[in-house]
Design a protein that fits this description.
There is one protein chain. The protein has 328 residues and is an all-alpha fold. The protein has a domain of 207 residues: MetI-like (MetI-like fold). The chain contains 16 helices and two strands. The chain has a two-stranded antiparallel sheet with strand order 1-2. The longest helix is centred in the middle third of the chain and has 34 residues. The protein is globular, with a radius of gyration of 33 Å. Pfam families: BPD_transp_1 (PF00528). One of its GO terms (cellular component) is plasma membrane. InterPro entries: MetI-like, MetI-like_sf, UgpAE/MalFG_permease.
Length: 328
């Protein structure tokens, strides 16, 4: 049964207008894509920084590379022209077994110091994140004092602590723990104990930077995420491995990269300990070996270039991962 009245008029279908199209208001017109010309303002602001980097870093690096291909010594300092020898300096260094000993020793020293520093720095960062505010302030001030002390002063103090006659370390080991063999023990004569003292000094001065960097990263981890993981039954170790470490991984990678670079080119701590009576040839690292080359500027430049290539090779994995993170 139809609900429409039979006498109702059926409306005629709407006929579209045949006249010219009505103008579209300017507010509703689609915006035309304009080609944005590159502005010179931001690029011009980068010019002073690029010039400073080129002068402060670029020129010494180029000068070092040029010296490594020349015969440049004390005579050239008084006006004698430098002779171009090509790869002769590199062949002389890389054919010397002692150079490879120094390289292997430096890599091992760097690996041990970087690993110990990262572990202790990460543990202290977690401790800062967990303790109450008074204890956290005391720990932060202590770390700042250790970090802010000049390298030479810190090395001298540790040298006194490990002194064979008046050192506190020997006294504690001999009198407190009853180790009679440590009475009058010289820590700097044997290479193994020498590197132990150097590791203590280097780690002591590097841990504060790692601690503060990782502590700042831990503050960015959302509390809600940790609480959710805890409600799901994750323990403290599982939360650290599966929640905290993946979130702070970019900071962890950068700090590890910097630590490897710093530990590979360590110089002051080892040099001061060597001057205190350690055998130089048995304790040389890359930095002190370059220093020992003395007036042979071309050989020192070649060795410094080898050290630069080694640093880039050791940090290539971290650099690749950091660049991959920036592309995501």
């Amino acid at each position: 049964m139809s609900l429409t009245r039979p006498d109702a008029a059926v409306p005629a279908p709407a006929v579209p207008p045949t006249g010219p199209p009505l103008p579209v208001p300017a507010a509703t017109r689609p915006a035309r894509r304009r080609r944005r010309l590159p502005t010179l303002g931001p690029r011009l602001l980068l010019v002073p920084a690029l010039v400073a980097i080129a002068v402060g870093l670029g020129y010494p690096l180029v000068r070092q590379l040029v010296l490594s291909f020349q015969e440049y010594g004390l005579a050239q300092q008084f006006g004698r022209p430098a002779e171009w020898v090509g790869l002769q300096n590199y062949r002389t260094l890389l054919s010397d077994p002692y150079v490879w000993t120094v390289i292997g020793r430096s890599v091992a020293f760097c690996a041990v110091n970087a690993a110990v520093t990262m572990v202790l720095g990460g543990a202290l960062a977690l401790l800062l994140h967990r303790v109450a505010r008074p204890a956290r302030l005391v720990l932060q001030i202590s770390l700042l004092l250790a970090w802010g002390t000049p390298v030479l002063a810190t090395t001298t103090v540790w040298q006194w602590l490990f002194d064979s006659r008046y050192g506190v370390v020997n006294w504690v080991l001999a009198e407190g723990l009853g180790l009679e063999g440590m009475r009058g023990h010289s820590w700097l004569i044997e290479p193994l104990s020498f590197y132990l003292v150097a590791t203590v000094i280097v780690v002591w001065m590097s841990v504060p930077f790692v601690t503060f960097s990782l502590y700042a990263a831990l503050l960015q981890v959302p509390t809600e995420t940790l609480e959710a993981a805890q409600l799901d039954g994750a323990g403290a170790v599982q939360r650290l491995r599966r929640v905290v470490l993946p979130m702070i991984r970019p900071v962890l990678q950068i700090v590890t990269l910097l630590q490897v670079i710093w530990d590979l080119r360590v110089f002051t701590q080892v040099h001061v300990l060597q001057r205190a009576g350690a055998p130089t040839r048995d304790t040389n690292l890359l930095g002190t070996y370059i220093w020992s080359l003395g007036g042979e500027f071309s050989m020192a430049g070649a060795m410094a270039t080898i050290m630069l290539v080694l640093t880039l090779a050791l940090t290539a994995v971290y650099l690749r991962s950091v660049l991959r993170e920036e592309e995501l």
